[in-house]
Amino acid sequence: GFTFEQSGTSVTGGVQAGYQRQWGKLVAGFEAGLSLVRFDDTSAAEQESGLVSDLVAGLTRSAEASDIFTFTGRLGYADGRWLAYAKAGVASAQVDVTYRDSRTGATTSSDGREAGWTAGVGIDYALTQNLFLGVEYNYVHFRSDVRPPPIPEAQFDDVDVDIQSVVVRLNYRFGGCCHGAGPP
Fold it and tell me: What are phi and psi of 113, to 5 degrees?
């Protein structure tokens, strides 16, 4: 088997808005977010043993993901000033993948918005009645249907684009204290 190991690290910014309601210690709601991240990486094919076969020598793959939109449901537990929650939902991003075979000059690519899914967990702390500081972990998965140029005796699967992020967030809650929208 052959793999293309690609990894990138980036600092980014974004915006999010949502609605949540509290019943006792249970908190539920939804959230929409836009991350202006841009991951871009190119790598060469590697065989699982670490050697490159003549079949894929010269084959590279570039993958880029940007402008990630998410829409998630949230379910949490509030205790005092703390709110722990889990979330899951749908994601959309601009995903561009290009294969290049330097031996033949052949190129195949796919670009456009791809749909995927996301899940995450987080914790918020109420600094004031309406201001919250939080940290969360998110996992986002996309699949692109591009395949490399035809290579005899080789078969490739679709491209999986997986993004893991740790987010530090500062949220402001609109409305008064008693609407049940999170920790007091």
Answer: -75, 130
The answer to whether the pTM exceeds 0.85 is: no
Is residue 125 within 8 Å of 134, Cβ to Cβ? yes
On the 0-12 / 13-18 / 19+ scale of CB atoms within 10 A, 107 is: exposed
Q: What angle is formed at CA 178 by the lines to CA 173 and CA 182, rounded to 5 degrees?
A: 50
Residues whose CB is less than 8 angstroms from the CB of residue 120 and which lie 6 or more positions away in sequence, other chains included = 72, 86, 87, 88, 136, 137, 138, 139
Of 170, 78, 88, the residue nearest 130 (C-alpha): 170
Residue-averaged pLDDT of the chain:
82
Cα–Cα distance, 24 to 40 (Å, whole number):
45
